[in-house]
Structure formats: structure tokens, C-alpha cells
Write a structure and sequence with these properties.
Layout (H helix, E strand, L loop, with lengths): L9 H12 L5 H10 L6 H17 L4 H13 L2 E8 L7 E7 L5 E7 L4 H12 L5 E6 L3 H10 L5 E3 L1 H26 L3 H8 L5 H16 L11 H23 L5
């Protein structure tokens, strides 16, 4: 199933939402990840997919929102609010999203041209009008977001997002890991040719080969969760494990070494 006037299925939109909110990926990273999964996508179109996801999310907001937020307040004595903006390219509108941290509930989302303090405060107003206490505010370093949240809830503690902070520090390492990941995946090309050679062979050797091919192919889908779980390092370590297993099998068989 897919949205009207688009060929992208709902599972792709759900994946885009997971990449953004669970893995904290940028639009560029989402575009690259989709392309690696066999879904060729430009940055602009990745942003469009994200907007469709947010449209579906807003449409799902029903009267159970207040009930869920009331439960959060009961458990944590208040809400933890975060705000973030996603811009596919300079000069385009930025999609700002307001999220409750404990529940993961999206409370507001809107495309804005300037992202000024005034515009952001207008986006936050319906959230404030819900009337729930707010015990914490989180965002990246964007000044207008900090000012808007600070003036809307002046007595609430504010904190710079630890994930953004860590991601900024780790960016040089993540960039190098991305190059490592690309190089490793290039070195694993040619699997299909080997698969063709053994796909109709019922021998034990071919069955073992198919198992190793499946294990190697699974490495191509490794995404990790940078900056803490680097995909390039994960692919390298798992590829080394496959290589060691292959060498051990060859040694037992008495065949040529890899």
C-alpha cells in the first residue's frame, strides 16, 4: 500500500521516520541510506518523504494525546520537550518538529521560511495551551529555538541536546568511517557471480558456500547507528570474522588458503 500519487509504500515512509527520530539521521544521510537499500533517492526527495511521514503523523493525532501526556506527567511530573529543524537545501523552507521526549509523541510540526523566534513561538503556543507542566527543554544550538522555548517556558531548565553535541564532536570520525564503509562495500562486489555458480549445485560444499555468501551479503545492509555504533567498523569486524571462518574451513578441508 502507498499514498495516493506516489509509488513509495508505507513501510518506506515508516523507515524514513525511524531514521530521523530514532537514528537521528540528517536528510543527506537518509538519502544515502535509502539509496544503499536499493531505493534511489535524492536529498530533495528524501525531504519530501519525510514531509509525507510527518503528514501521516499529524493525521494520527487524536484525543488520546492528552491522555498519553497526562500519563507522562503522572510518571515524570512533567513533559520533556524538544524542538528540531530539518532543511534539505539552503534557501528552502525548514520543517520544525516539536516532540515530547518521554513518550516520543510528536506534538507539532510545520514548514517555516525563516525560523525566527516569533514564528517558533507561534508553533509552540498550541503545545503550551495544552496546560501540562514542562520540566525540561532540549534542542540543538540554534539560537532562535533556544530563545523561543526559553520565552515560552521561562522557568524551565534548558539543555543542549547531548546527541547533537556528541555528533558534532564525532563528525571527523564519522566521515572517515563513511569512507571506510564505502570502500569495504566496493570490495564485496561480485557476490552474484559466485551465487550463480553454486545456486543449482546440491553438494555440501555449495551449501556451505551459499551460507557464507548470505553472511557476506548481510554485511551490505549494515547501517549502524553513528556516532556510537559506526557501520564501517561493524562491517570490517564482521567481514574479518567471516574471513577467519572461511580460512578455518579451508584449513580443515585441506584446500587452498584465502
Amino acid at each position: 500500500m502507498c499514498l495516493k500519487h506516489t509509488s513509495y509504500a508505507y513501510d518506506v515512509l515508516a523507515l524514513v521516520g525511524e531514521m530521523r527520530f530514532k537514528q537521528h539521521m540528517t536528510v543527506t544521510e537518509i538519502s544515502e541510506a535509502l539509496t544503499e537499500r536499493g531505493i534511489p533517492t535524492s536529498e530533495r526527495h528524501a525531504m519530501r518523504l519525510y514531509e509525507w511521514y510527518m503528514t501521516l503523523l499529524r493525521a494520527s493525532l487524536t484525543t488520546d494525546v492528552k491522555e498519553q501526556l497526562a500519563n507522562v506527567v503522572k510518571e515524570y511530573n512533567g513533559l520533556l520537550l524538544s524542538m528540531d529543524g530539518v532543511q534539505p537545501e539552503k534557501g528552502n523552507e525548514t520543517l520544525y518538529v516539536v516532540r515530547e521526549g518521554f513518550s516520543g509523541r510528536i506534538l507539532a510540526a510545520k514548514n517555516l521560511k525563516s525560523g525566527s523566534k516569533t514564528e517558533l513561538m507561534a508553533l509552540l503556543k498550541p503545545v503550551k495551551d495544552l496546560g501540562f507542566p514542562v520540566i525540561g527543554l532540549v534542542s540543538d544550538g540554534q539560537q532562535s529555538i533556544r530563545l523561543a522555548m526559553g520565552e515560552t517556558w521561562p522557568e524551565t531548565p534548558y539543555q543542549y541536546c547531548q546527541y547533537h553535541y556528541l555528533k558534532d564532536i564525532a563528525k571527523p570520525v564519522v566521515d572517515l568511517d563513511r569512507k571506510l564503509k564505502t570502500g569495504l562495500k566496493k570490495s564485496l562486489r561480485g557476490l552474484r557471480e559466485i551465487e550463480k555458480q553454486v545456486e543449482d549445485d546440491d553438494s555440501i560444499e555449495s551449501e556451505v558456500t551459499r551460507d557464507y555468501l548470505a553472511a557476506t551479503r548481510s554485511l551490505l545492509l549494515e547501517d549502524g547507528n553513528p556516532p556510537l555504533d559506526l557501520p564501517g567498523i561493524q562491517i570490517y569486524e564482521k567481514a574479518e570474522a567471516v574471513k577467519a571462518s572461511l580460512e578455518k574451513s579451508v584449513a580443515k578441508k585441506g584446500g587452498p588458503s584465502f
